[in-house]
């Protein structure tokens, strides 16, 4: 099936599906001032894991001071109409995460026909993780992941996350999920940078992620291994690391990502626009991936593909003689408009010298960088790339003609951008 018809079918089914929770049981989460409200939720789950609503009431700020693993749910709605606060003390959270009983995320949800929702009310439905203190301290030890939503037939809507410590929504392993009208506000009000505050981790099947606001310090979306049928549209991304596929192939991993459409998205103050990243020595295939109708403002790397990804947190860039990586087949970059940040800058995640995003030989004017291995990439295309450096300089590209097998939509060279 061709990409447009595939996504027309998936998007129609997820957008028009009648989502509802059968049954009339409702558990209203009780609140005790100054106490942890999570134990009451965990105690009630035995009676409310099916055909139920679990309600955090409007007008109450709940203390969820320990993680909640909801287990496997069937026909359940989790409604966060009140506010939620997590522990403010860094050592308290670190001790919980370090304990062997930690479920991997502060909130862990599995099951079938599950809705996780907040409220459209701008004053309520906020989840405050007090991430600013972690960013100011540059503390990266024993940080919790936020929300694991690994369900089949799920809805994630109207959630509002305030100052999350790090990773936010993980949909990996989920199937038939629609996530919309959610907000992530991981913006620092100091020089402390919100490391690893990824927006959506999308390694699932048939995922529709639309109409969300993601202000963070890492990938707006990261489409990981196992993804098939991911549609990300009509979203706003600010401050992070772009619309990313990967990273794939770490440690020689066999990876698979197929049928991804990312479109109609605004990128402001992002380090990257469209981005693919795979590790040297990896294996597998990333196939049928399209980024289109992308608006960029103040973005240093508008289109960036690398098969030489590395993680600065693990040490210096590795020396490798391997020429293998996750293979690329049918990538499309269509209708990119806006401006490129091409003046000297230092992005907040830079803790190495040179910075992890340094590209040897680059001038800072490259609107397209293809860092590919020979024989690993086929049918990579660009069309209507109307991104210009802010200084008024002529846009450039970096591309080794020995690594492309067909016309990529511009003259493949290290030089001026010349569309074909």
Automatic annotation (TrEMBL):
Q: Where the protein is mainly located, per its record?
A: secreted
EC class name: hydrolase
Q: Which reaction is recorded as catalysed by this protein?
A: [(1->4)-alpha-D-galacturonosyl](n) + H2O = alpha-D-galacturonate + [(1->4)-alpha-D-galacturonosyl](n-1)
Active site at which residues?
241
Supply the EC number(s).
3.2.1.67
Q: Which residues form the signal peptide?
A: 1-23
GO MF terms here are: galacturan 1,4-alpha-galacturonidase activity; polygalacturonase activity
Biological process terms in GO annotation: carbohydrate metabolic process; cell wall organization
Q: Which domain of life is it from?
A: Eukaryota
* Protein keywords: Cell wall biogenesis/degradation, Disulfide bond, Glycoprotein, Glycosidase, Hydrolase, Repeat, Secreted, Signal
Q: What does this protein do?
A: Specific in hydrolyzing the terminal glycosidic bond of polygalacturonic acid and oligogalacturonates.
The text of the family note is: Belongs to the glycosyl hydrolase 28 family.
Identify this protein by name. galacturonan 1,4-alpha-galacturonidase
Organism for this UniProt entry: Botryobasidium botryosum (strain FD-172 SS1)
């Amino acid at each position: 099936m061709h990409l447009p018809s595939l996504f027309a079918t998936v998007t129609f089914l997820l957008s028009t599906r009648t989502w509802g929770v059968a049954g009339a049981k409702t558990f209203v989460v009780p609140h005790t001032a100054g106490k942890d409200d999570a134990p009451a939720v965990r105690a009630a789950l035995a009676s409310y894991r099916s055909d139920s609503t679990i309600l955090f009431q409007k007008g109450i700020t709940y203390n969820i001071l320990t993680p909640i693993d909801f287990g496997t749910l069937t026909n359940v709605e989790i409604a966060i109409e009140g506010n939620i606060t997590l522990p403010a003390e860094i050592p308290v959270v670190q001790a919980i995460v370090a304990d062997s009983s930690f479920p991997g995320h502060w909130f862990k949800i599995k099951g079938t026909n599950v809705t996780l929702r907040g409220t459209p009310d701008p004053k309520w439905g906020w989840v405050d993780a007090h991430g600013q203190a972690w960013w100011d301290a540059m503390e990266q030890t024993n940080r919790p992941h936020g929300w694991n939503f690994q369900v089949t037939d799920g809805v994630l809507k109207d959630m509002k996350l305030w100052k999350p410590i790090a990773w936010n929504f993980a949909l990996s392993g989920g199937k038939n999920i629609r996530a919309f009208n959610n907000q992530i506000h991981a913006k620092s009000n100091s020089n402390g940078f919100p490391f690893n505050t990824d927006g959506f981790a999308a390694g699932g099947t048939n995922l529709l992620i639309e109409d969300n606001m993601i202000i963070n310090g890492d990938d707006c979306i990261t489409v990981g291994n196992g993804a098939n049928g991911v549609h990300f549209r009509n979203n706003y991304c600010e401050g992070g690391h772009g619309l990313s596929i990967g990273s794939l192939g770490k440690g020689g991993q066999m990876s698979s990502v197929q049928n991804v459409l990312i479109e109609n998205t605004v990128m402001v103050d992002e380090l990257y626009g469209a981005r693919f990243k795979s590790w040297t020595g990896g294996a597998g295939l990333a196939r049928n991936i399209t980024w289109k109708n992308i608006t960029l403002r103040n973005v240093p790397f508008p289109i960036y593909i690398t098969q030489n990804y590395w993680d600065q947190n693990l040490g210096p860039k590795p020396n490798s003689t391997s020429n293998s990586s996750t293979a690329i087949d049918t990538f499309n970059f269509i209708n990119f408009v806006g401006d490129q940040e091409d003046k000297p800058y230092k992005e907040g995640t830079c803790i190495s010298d040179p910075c992890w995003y340094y590209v040897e030989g680059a001038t800072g004017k490259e609107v397209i960088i293809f860092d590919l291995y020979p024989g690993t990439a086929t049918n990579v295309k660009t069309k209507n790339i109307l991104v210009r450096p802010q200084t008024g300089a002529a846009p450039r590209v970096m591309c080794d003609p020995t690594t492309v097998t067909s016309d990529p939509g511009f003259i493949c060279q290290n030089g001026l951008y010349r569309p074909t």
